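SAMPLE LOG
Freezer: B-3
Tube label: C17
Construct: single chain, 289 aa
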Amino acid sequence: MAGAAWNWRPSLLRKYIPEIESGGLSVIGPVRDDNQDSIHLPDLENPVGPGLLFAVADGMGGYAHGGVASLLALETLSRVLVSQFGNSSIPKALRRGVEMANLQVYQKAQQLGAGRMGTTLTAAYVFGNTLYLTHVGDSRAYLIRNARATCLSADHTAVGDMVRSKLLSPDKLRTHAQRSVLTKAIGIGLFVQPDITEHRLQEGDRLVLCSDGVWSVVQDEDFARVASDTSSMESVSRELVDLAIQNDTDDNASVVGIHVNKLIPASSIDEHQAGKKNNWFENLRKTAL
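STRUCTURE (predicted):
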């Protein structure tokens, strides 16, 4: 869980300290020869900076070195966020991180002579009671609240565009022959424009990030059921991956699960810490007398 170690900036900038549980799993799946997905989970006991970064990246299977692309994108985003702490707003830091990840993957492809290589990138940054979501490609982020699953990300695919334009029924999206044709990805061009959105969190919320090897064969109601009925986030990740395999996924399968156990008012923690300091000073004064 995350606790008072988040004391990076004054408490005026955060109203709550979230107590978080998380888990994740990434597997090759029954068809692929290698795993081109990558996931990122923070060290909850020793977080770096004021927030927590969770992410899924799906290396593009049709291109060379997809696994290199997905891992490099996540490493770059994490590193840039750390370097930006205190220098810019969280949305600007996330945008900068995605831009640098895109450039790093693009340049790596040139260095390797690999032609084009790319990756999706869906990342959740939790700060206080706010979720900052940044997204490129067709991995997904789900919010499970009151036993209902809501997809927070928009698929950057030709089929996704058709659904949003009402040219295709949403129930046809998962089975469409061109479902995986991306319109936007990390690393396939010099520039990329990520979606960045903010969402207010509530106690009990659960979040699921996953690659399309999972959501393409798992229905939204199944995300809600598994995330709501399963106790630990490690178990949620395992059950969703297992379900994708049972449903004959033909891709790598990756899941990151996040549970907002509590939202503790920051003022109560700051007052507690101030009380401990005052008690220490009072004891020192008495000893001196």
